[in-house]
From TrEMBL, chain B:
<dbReference type="InterPro" id="IPR036736">
    <property type="entry name" value="ACP-like_sf"/>
</dbReference>
<protein>
    <submittedName>
        <fullName>Acyl carrier protein</fullName>
    </submittedName>
</protein>
<dbReference type="Pfam" id="PF00550">
    <property type="entry name" value="PP-binding"/>
</dbReference>
<feature type="domain" description="Carrier">
    <location>
        <begin position="1"/>
        <end position="81"/>
    </location>
</feature>
<dbReference type="InterPro" id="IPR009081">
    <property type="entry name" value="PP-bd_ACP"/>
</dbReference>
Length: 188, 87
């Protein structure tokens, strides 16, 4: 199982007043708040942490089938961060997820996987967010067919083996990102 | 405040955070903030904070965990307000 999350930084600036009283306390642990408030660009650090939490949360929700809004239970540690890329972990209860993040001028994207080695077989595509993004992906891919389940979850089928591969789609503002794995199946 | 008034108050609070005005117009107890109103998960916190301010209650983390739809939100506010009245 894999998960991803993208934040359009311009959209986030319009939509979210993260400096309002109580906001950070509801979603970030004390060490996470410290990282945000002491960062050179606090808003970027907040959305970096948020995409880490959300990408890990997508794995948990897909695995358990239970939706729950508990951002404080997803605890982030940023191990490495150079302004363009970051890596770290998210702890949720007894589980640890590995996270890699890409930071661009106007968007931040995080991918979550169970093991670091899973990154070797992970692919990332940025597409235009339109109603036809699945068709666009399929014409680019050739090997895989992206469709949606009746409940709206993405489903990726290998056209030769018929295996269902792990896939995650995230959209925010002007950005849409798809990650999928050559090695992990949707049931993994 | 009865249930219909509570649902109307939730609708007013959710309004600025959804671009789907049709789904908002049809808001009912069955409405899900994320799947129906397409509210961004980062804005769910704003709804929680706005509800806390409007009703003078504190929504703890366990309650927030369930606040994904109108039905649980109504139940949480009713329970918090009853607890508040007893004090």
């Amino acid at each position: 199982m894999i998960g991803n999350d993208i934040v359009d930084l311009r959209q986030a600036e319009l939509d979210s007043n993260w400096q309002r009283k109580g906001y950070l306390d509801k979603i970030c642990t004390a060490p996470e708040q410290q990282m945000i408030l002491t960062a050179l660009y606090p808003a970027r650090m907040l959305w970096l942490i948020w995409t880490m939490k959300e990408s890990a949360c997508k794995i948990v929700q897909r695995k358990t089938g239970i939706r729950s809004y508990v951002p404080l239970k997803f605890c982030c540690e940023v191990a490495c961060h150079d302004g363009l890329q970051a890596s770290g972990t998210v702890n949720y209860l007894e589980e640890i997820f590995q996270i890699r993040t890409e930071i661009k001028d106007n968007c931040i994207h995080s991918s979550a996987v169970p093991q670091s080695s899973d990154f070797e077989h992970l692919h990332l595509h940025y597409l235009q967010p339109s109603a036809t993004y699945r068709e666009e992906f399929n014409s680019l891919s050739g090997l895989y067919l992206l469709a949606g389940t009746p409940s709206g979850l993405p489903e990726l089928t290998h056209q030769i083996t018929g295996h269902k591969h792990a896939v995650s789609v995230s959209h925010h503002g002007e950005y849409l990102a798809i990650i999928y794995s050559d090695s992990l199946l949707s049931a993994d | 405040m009865d249930k219909d008034e509570l649902i109307a108050a939730i609708k007013e609070i959710a309004a600025p955070y959804t671009a789907d005005k049709t789904a908002l117009a049809h808001l009912s107890e069955k409405t899900d903030f994320i799947t129906d109103l397409k509210i961004n998960s980062a804005n769910l916190v704003d709804i929680v904070l706005d509800l806390e301010e409007k009703f003078g209650i504190e929504i703890d983390n366990d309650a927030m965990a369930r606040m994904l739809n109108v039905k649980s939100t109504v139940e949480i506010i009713e329970a918090k307000m009853r607890a508040h009245d007893r004090k």
